[in-house]
Write a structure and sequence with these properties.
Elements: H1 2-10, H2 14-35, H3 41-49, H4 51-65, H5 69-85, H6 91-110, H7 117-136, H8 143-170, H9 176-202, H10 215-241, H11 246-260, H12 264-272, H13 274-277, H14 283-299, H15 333-337, H16 355-377, H17 383-391, H18 399-427, H19 431-447, H20 453-471, H21 476-499, H22 505-532, H23 539-560, H24 573-598, H25 605-624, H26 628-632, H27 639-642, H28 655-671
């Protein structure tokens, strides 16, 4: 914004030109700060080079059509379609499309003349150059520091999981507090999976690796931590549901509290006393204690954050991360929804279009309706309705996502309206104070956007209030008109998302759940081969299969987690929570089977046969999606699995593996 301001002074752009230059610079900055997230300078340079092209195309088209009102409206629809359609070409094109749309909006709204166009293009080029310079210097992502941040996040989230487990154990079984604590445990566990996948993605960049480590070694270590966290989570749930003595519960809470305080030594000592306190306890309690002991043993064995080196390590050519990061982040819900079939009859050609094209059609239809309805509300300010309808399809994948984003936009506008009126009146006549509020609002809106889209809209509304105040156009009625237009555009976005080739959140949930179970079956195939011949399958290959299931579970949680809360359009959150918990336990049990089979030194044909049965059953469950035939016909497992007490432990039979395989089948039956 400062560069835009200085450039306007140098070009004698005038009062309106100064505001336009600063706003164009802000558009470049807000998009560029996200688009230029690669740590490679050349990649950022390639991306930034097309910022002026995208905005320039929008500005030029808007200037050409602004002379005719109806041609300008028609161009609006075309640009909305193209801005969404180009997303099919990859991450940077999401920002190019938005920039092109904003360029068209500026030119149409301002009635830009061809004489003013060169100066605006110069402002865009200057802002793009500044953002590129920042992205390759002081704001350049450092893979090593990023991975260190991921490790810190993992430690913090591990402490959060410990606190959630304490709340679960201390709550009365079956009470609302227990239900809330159980959900908190699930969410904390899911966040830890996210950090593990994030570290796996950054491990593909050699400069990020710890000293002396390979990417595969880091993955193996993190999966081992995941195994320990699984044992802690399962043990806490089992203990919370059982009748354990107060002394034992107190000791378990003490161990978790030490873990929450990052005191691994005290946590290890507290966990060592659990067996003695559970000697006379029921079988279920002893099983919970065994899980807790194993979990604390893994978590407290070695530090969870490897020491990072400044030396650039040579990475393995064969290493493939479980998930490709998008601009340094894990992909969002559109990455899941893009593979889900849209609802609609066979007569509807839109449902057969690629995901980005379907969304482009939705955006165009929403734009047409928003122009009509917005013009009925105000022939001059209809564009607020168009903006609300357009952004409803930015970064969303399902109709639930679109509905939630539209509702948050209205809520953020309403809250920002009250704050904006108060602040604008307080800063009236004080231009410097108003500019400070604008800059602070832009900062806070961008910073809090990852927490909630509503926060960003709240601060953007305050910023607009100050901007209109500086321009001398501020009035309470103007902001109320913005609220009315925004609400209309949001309602249109919701309507189009529900009617025009919608992607159902429940369909996405069902199909993504099937993908998780299919990934479990694939991993079990590899485990079976390892059980037959331990030398035939490497640990690295097993790690790859397990973390692939991790990623599928992350995708499922991404789609399903919003449904675990009561919504106006969703009244079965407990059922969704239980469903996600079962799938989470499925992965935790798979890790136990994998761990037990890795410890085999000789092949076990019987165990391999039982693992193969469950793998085939998992594939049937994934394909049948609730078919009663599958539910009634699970495989019949060996007698030893049905009653592990008959196992001859002295002969080295892997009792843990047999028990886990049986548990895996029970979870699949439950899921089916």
């Amino acid at each position: 914004m400062l560069v835009g301001y200085l450039l306007s002074l140098a070009l004698h752009a005038g009062a309106q030109g100064t505001v336009v230059f600063m706003m164009l610079s802000s558009v470049v900055a807000m998009n560029g700060s996200n688009a230029l997230g690669d740590h490679r300078r050349r990649a950022n340079a390639r991306t930034a080079a097309f910022f002026p092209v995208a905005i320039g195309a929008g500005l030029t088209m808007g200037t050409l059509l602004s002379v005719n009102h109806y041609a300008s409206l028609a161009g609006f629809i075309v640009v909305m379609f193209l801005a969404v359609w180009v997303r099919r070409f990859g991450g940077p094109f999401f920002f190019y499309g938005f920039m092109g749309w904003m360029g068209y909006f500026f030119a149409s709204f301002l009635g830009t003349s061809f004489a003013a166009l060169p100066g605006m293009l110069v402002a865009v080029i200057a802002a793009s150059a500044v953002m590129l310079l920042l992205s390759i210097t002081i704001a350049r992502p450092d893979p090593r520091k990023t991975l260190a941040s991921v490790f810190r996040a993992m430690s913090a989230r591990q402490r959060g999981l410990a606190r959630a487990c304490i709340a679960l154990i201390e709550a009365d079984a079956g009470s609302p507090a227990s239900d809330r604590a159980s959900l908190a445990v699930f969410r904390a566990r899911a966040r830890l999976t996210d950090t593990a996948l994030m570290s796996d993605g950054w491990a593909a960049h050699a400069p990020a690796l710890p000293a002396g480590w390979t990417a595969s070694a880091l993955r193996s270590r993190l999966l081992n931590v995941q195994l320990g966290l699984d044992r802690l989570t399962i043990g806490a749930r089992e203990l919370a549901a059982s009748v354990a003595s107060p002394a034992l519960r107190h000791a378990v809470v003490d161990a978790f509290r030490a873990l929450a305080d990052a005191n691994l030594g005290r946590a290890r000592d507290a966990a060592a006393r659990l067996s003695e306190l559970s000697d006379d306890s029921p079988r279920a309690v002893r099983a919970a204690v065994r899980n807790l002991e194993r979990g604390f043993g893994v978590i407290t064995a070695v530090p969870n954050r490897p020491v990072l080196s400044r030396e650039v390590a040579k990475n393995e050519d064969s290493f493939v991360p479980a998930v490709e990061l998008m601009l340094g982040q894990l992909p969002g819900s559109p990455s899941v929804a893009s593979g889900i079939e849209a609802r609609g009859g066979a007569w509807n050609p839109i449902v057969r279009l690629p995901f980005a094209t379907r969304q482009a059609v939705q955006a165009a239809v929403a734009g047409i309706l928003a122009i009509i309805v917005g013009s009925l509300i105000s022939g001059q300010r209809y564009y607020w309705a168009v903006i609300a309808a357009f952004v409803a399809f930015a970064g969303t994948g399902t109709r639930f996502d679109t509905t939630r984003k539209a509702v948050l936009r209205v809520a953020g506008t309403l809250a920002g309206l009250g704050a904006g009126i108060l602040i604008a009146h307080a800063t009236s006549g004080h231009t410097f104070a108003a500019l400070v509020v604008i800059v602070v609002s832009i900062f806070c809106g961008n910073y809090l956007m990852r927490v909630s889209y509503g926060y960003m809209i709240f601060f953007i509304t305050i910023m607009l209030s100050e901007l209109y105040s500086i321009l001398g156009e501020f009035s309470d009625s103007l902001l109320l008109l913005r609220l009315a237009e925004t609400a209309a555009g949001a309602a249109i976005g919701i309507l189009v998302a529900l009617v025009v080739s919608p992607v159902s959140t429940r369909d996405a949930l069902d199909q993504t759940e099937g993908a998780v179970v299919e990934a479990v079956a694939k991993a079990l195939d590899r485990v079976r081969a390892r059980a037959l011949n331990p030398a035939s399958v490497s640990a690295t290959a097993l790690d790859g299969d397990i973390i692939a299931v991790d990623n599928q579970l992350r995708r499922l949680v991404l789609i399903g987690e919003p449904l675990t809360r009561y919504q106006a359009w969703e009244n079965r959150p407990r059922a969704i929570r239980r469903r996600l918990t079962v799938v989470g336990n499925l992965l935790a049990t798979l890790r136990t089977v994998d761990y037990a089979v890795r410890r085999l030194t000789v092949g076990d044909a019987e165990l391999a046969g039982e693992v193969g049965k469950v793998a085939d059953y998992a594939r049937a469950v994934a394909a049948a999606r609730g078919d009663a035939v599958v539910v009634r016909n699970p495989p019949v497992l060996a007698r030893e699995i049905l009653d592990t007490r008959t196992l001859d432990i002295a002969q080295g039979r892997p009792a843990e593996a047999y028990t886990a395989v049986a548990r895996l089948q029970a979870l699949l039956e439950d899921l089916a």
